[in-house]
Amino acid sequence: MKDIQQKIEKLLLKVQRPARYIGGELGQVVKDKSEVDVRFAFCFPDVYDVGMSHLGMKILYGLKNSRPNWWCERVFMPEKDFAQKMRENDIPLYALESLDPIRDFDFIGFTLQYELSYTNVLEMLDLAGLPVHSRDRKELTPLVVAGGPCVCDPEPMADFFDLFIIGEGEEVNCELMELYERMKPLSPTKEQFLAEAAKIEGIYVPSFYDVSYNDDGTVQKVVPNREGVPERVKKRVISDLDKSFYPESFVVPFTSIVHDRAVVEVLRGCIRGCRFCQAGFIYRPFREKSIGTIEHETKCLCEQTGYEQVSLSSLSTSDHSQIEELLDTLADYTDSERINLSLPSLRIDKFSEELLEKIASVRKSGLTFAPEAGTQKLRDVINKNITEDEIMHTCKMAFEAGYGTVKLYFMLGLPEETDEDVLGIAELAHKVVELYYQTPKEMRASSIQVSVSAATFVPKPFTPFEFEPQATPEEIDRKQKLIIDAIRSKKIRFSYHQQPVSMLEAVLARGDRRICDVIYTAWKKGCILDSWDEHFRPDLWEEAFSECGIDREFYANRRRSYDEVMPWAHLDYLVSREFFVRENKRAHEAVTTRNCAEGCSACGISRQYGGKYCACN
Amino acid sequence: MLMPKNQNLNIERWDYRLTYAKEGRARYISHLDLMRTMQRAIKRARVPIWYTQGFNPHAYLMFPLALPLGTDSKVEILDIALTEDIPFDKVVDMLNSSMPEGLYFVSAARPVMKHTDIASAEYVIRAELDAPADSLLEKWQEFVSQEEITIEKRTKPKKGRKQGGVKLVDIKPHITVVSAQARENALMLTLRLPAGGEFNLNSSVVTDAFFAFAQTEPEQVCTERTKILAANGEEFA
């Protein structure tokens, strides 16, 4: 450590925001190496500012460090300036707590939160001084593992990881590390360890499965190539959130990060079933924490961190069955401690006046809504069950309460989308502006700004839209222009996604193992930090695809039949294929499906997993 | 209608001048980040901090002098106000109960001087080389014996322009050398430089100019601010 510390301290003053590379924050866990049996490097494949905001890392960091003889440390992707200095000065990628090189750790664990971070994984392994391909790392350690939402289709990254952790990590991470702790004294080979690990529910070892392809290029089958591994790997679910581990402390960064506040998770899963939304399906079933648990966790975190803001996090916080009571309880505490309570994910239909008042802090920031589509028909197609009346009613309340900025999020290129639906986006924005001017002057804010953002729809695995083609770049281009031409008000600001990024996401999200070579080639050419506009290199990616002989359209723009074997068919996220087919058909008929609280729609998740509204056996 | 959130605030306040240290890993915390860090430390310590009056009440913290990124110090000043009169020792203990590595409070007292009284600061600089520093010491003597030491100073952009200009400034009159010596592979300097609102000279401006003059690239430069001084030469209190 001393060696690396000396080396990096000579460089820190030459790079941007050095506090990100030296650790030492309040709440970091430092242990005595001689008393530690298992060391885990938790890697977030993006820069510190982004990675430090990630809740999953905070949970697993606290959980693993709660065992006296395990030590989990944080690792982030360095910015290009520091990465270059590290390479020039032979500094291997190190963990922030001990400043030890991560190549000496027992586990290197990545969380895959978005597809555009894939090349960063390769860059970080390379910075660590390790071969990026799993097959080239012959020793038992470090074991390179990954979890997170993207591992629901891990195939494009299958060549680089030793194993994947499928589903929620709290239990399975511990089981995996316990197994390692037991086996380590026996000095097993890497294969021997992986064979045992594959017996744990939720562990997927890609090298134990063979993929074969049909003549048309689709997957024929994915089957185990040895005894003792399951044909389908089932995701893990925590059935009782009140009994599950939640950290009482966070690492409090010095430098400002994206979400710089205390965060308390109030529920997991989502009752809504919006058909485009992967999170809405892979995190099922819907489970809540009790008010008592949330209150306790809020107090612990605020006291330990000193944060002046706490945010209630979930996919849809207002869907908590006791939301009003919860906010009353928490407001008593936060008001007395001068802590700002924020609710980032509210649904328009639940946005009552009272709620608005409760969260209206002294600072009136903007309101953000996600109607997702411009017309009722298209909102029915995607099962976003909100009406224009509800949107307008909520905006009216917001304007009367003095809000002056409204953000509206939409998607372009949705299934069944017509030009009329696209123009509906501009129309809705105009109506919102109009509504502001109808609000009495003495009530409304002094000015209005409506920001309209239209992201390009990316079809994702384990959603009813996993069969859908992504709209071609030309089509999206045309639709973006339609909106630009239709916007007449200077109060409306329109922003949209760049085409090559969305198409790359679509390929990576539903890719198979043949994509591994593309990712490797693109990284070799210098593609890293792809999610940052200033670093993204579409030209290099294009070269990589053509050199590997991979047709992007095959993955992004092709309609997949209901009986096609998906590259992720050997993973079981508990929601049935039949349900996705049923939902896809209803989408094309523009028929909505009720939410879980209104009644079970038989998505296939058994009630043993603790879902509040589940009725399936 | 909007009402100020803190209308029933206790207006009575007791002022504290805290002296704190910033060293080791904490030396890489920027000044802006330090404000946030201290605010949170105070909140964690549960000292009864006085909040400003108005629509956006915030904890009152005042840093009279910024410490450059990368510089160590045990003499930094933070002024706060509390709503209760708590003994100095106790305030220091409370605050030190949950501080990040390398950041801690040394003492507390009632403010005596005004912020505008700060005039200069003293720095101990250790420049490490890969060879004995004797010849560099000679270079240093040469450097400070020059008639003028001009540096390029970036000026603030004028209205409507993005980039500022560059101005030549003679820093020679502002450098007071307290001591300079070579110790094995290190050049040790103690300098007194202007600090505070009027005119501020960063020690790295002096060392950068010197190493450019000497055409040497040091292995590492370690700097510690050791004193903050008032115009009359007394330590700021």
In short:
The complex is a heterodimer of chains A (about 625) and B (about 240). Helix content of chain A is about 35%, strand content about 15%.
How would you characterize this protein structure?
The complex is a heterodimer of chains A (617) and B (237). In chain A, strands 2-1-3-4-5-6 form a six-stranded mixed sheet, with helices on one face. In chain A, strands 15-16-17-18 form a four-stranded parallel sheet. The radius of gyration of chain A is 24 Å and the shape is globular. Chain A has helices at 2-12, 48-51, 55-65, 80-88, 118-127, 169-183, 190-197, 279-282, 291-305, 323-336, 353-359, 376-381, 388-400, 419-438, 473-486, 499-509, 515-524, 538-547, 552-556, 577-588, and strands at residues 38-44, 70-76, 107-111, 143-147, 163-165, 203-204, 209-213, 219-224, 233-234, 262-265, 267-268, 287-288, 309-313, 340-342, 367-372, 405-412, 449-456, 492-496, 571-572. Chain A contains 20 helices and 19 strands. Chain B is an alpha+beta fold and 237 residues long. Chain B has helices spanning 31-45, 88-96, 134-144, 203-214, and strands at residues 14-22, 61-62, 71-82, 103-109, 118-128, 150-154, 166-170, 176-183, 186-194, 220-230. The chains are: A alpha/beta (617), B alpha+beta (237). At the A-B interface, helix 1 and helix 9 of A face helix 1 of B.
